[in-house]
Amino acid sequence: MYLAELLHAAGRRWYVLVAGLLLTAGVIVLALRLIPITYDVKSSVLLLPPQISVEETGGNPFLALGGLEVVAGVLSKSLTDSDTVESIAPSDGTAEYTIQQDASVDGSVLEVTVSDRTADGAFDTLDAVLATATERLDTLQDTVAASDDSHVRMMVITNNTVAVPNSAALGRTLIVLTAACLVLTLLLAVFVDAAVRRRHAVTAARPPASSDGAHEPAPGPAPDVRSAHDERAVLASESP
User: Which of 129, 118, 29 is nearest to 75 (CA)?
Assistant: First the structure.
C-alpha cells in the first residue's frame, strides 16, 4: 500500500485520527508531570604544585609520576569509585555528578558537573564534591608520607552561582512518545478503514431478502395437466 493510499484511508477514518491526537496530547501532559527538568551546576578546580619538589626532603612521590596531570587523574578516579559516589550522591536520591579533566585547558584542571532535580540540591551536592575532593587529595598524599610543604593544593577557579535548567532528557522523551503515538494512530486508522470496507464488501455480496424477511421459495416444475386427464379417463372406463 502506497503512502497516498494510507493517507486516504486515514482520512476516511478522521474520527480515529482525532481520538489519537487527543490521546497523544494526554501522553505529553503526563510525561511533563512525570519527567521533571533537571538543573546543572559546574565548577572547575586547578591543582597547584607544592613549593618543594620530590627530590627534596619529605618530597611528594606523586610528582615523580609525570606531573600534576597524573595527580588530577588519580584524584578523579578516587572521587568516582562506588563508595564515594554513594556517600555523596546516594543511588536512592536524585543527584548525579561527574568529574573529568578539562580537555580545553592544558594542565591539571578538573571539571565537576552536578545534576539534580532542584537547584538547591545541585548546589549542595557540588559543595559536597568539592569538600570531599580537598580531603581526598590530602589523604592520598598523606598515605605516601608526603610532607605538608610538598602537598599539591586545590583551588576553585570557576564556580556557577546560577543553576542551568536542563530539559534535554525531557525533550528526547517527548519526541519519542509523540512519534510513537502518531504512528500508532495512523496504523489504527488504516486498520479500522480496512475492517469497515471488508464488512461492507461482505454485506454487498449477500442475496437480497424479501419484504417479510424470508427468502421466496424457488419455483417448482409445472403440473402435467394432460397426464391427470388421461388418468381420469382410464378410471371411468374401468368402472361398471
Answer: 129
Question: 3-state DSSP call for residue 218?
Answer: coil
Number of H helices, E strands in the chain: 7, 5
Q: Which of 49, 86, 51, 56 is nearest to 70 (CA)?
A: 49
pLDDT of residue 218: 56
Could you give the CA distance from residue 80 to residue 201 in angstroms, rounded to a whole number? 68
Residues in the chain: 240
Farthest CA pair distance, the chain: 163
Segments of the chain scoring below 70 in pLDDT: 1-3, 51-67, 106-107, 208-240
Are the C-beta atoms of residues 160 and 41 closer than 8 Å to each other? yes
Of 134, 60, 59, 125, the closest CA to residue 89 belongs to: 125
CATH topology of domain 38-166: Alpha-Beta Plaits (3.30.70)
Q: What is d(CA 71, CA 74) in angstroms, rounded to the nearest whole number?
A: 5
Contact 151, 50 (CB under 8 A): yes
- pLDDT tens track for 24-61: 999 888 888 888 788 999 999 988 887 665 455 455 55
**Taking each helix axis from N to C terminus, what angle separates 14-34 and 3-12, rounded to the nearest 10 degrees?**
90
Q: In sequence order, what are the residues at sequence separation of 6 or more whose Cβ sits closer than 8 angstroms to the Cβ of residue 133?
A: 45, 75, 79, 99, 110, 112, 154
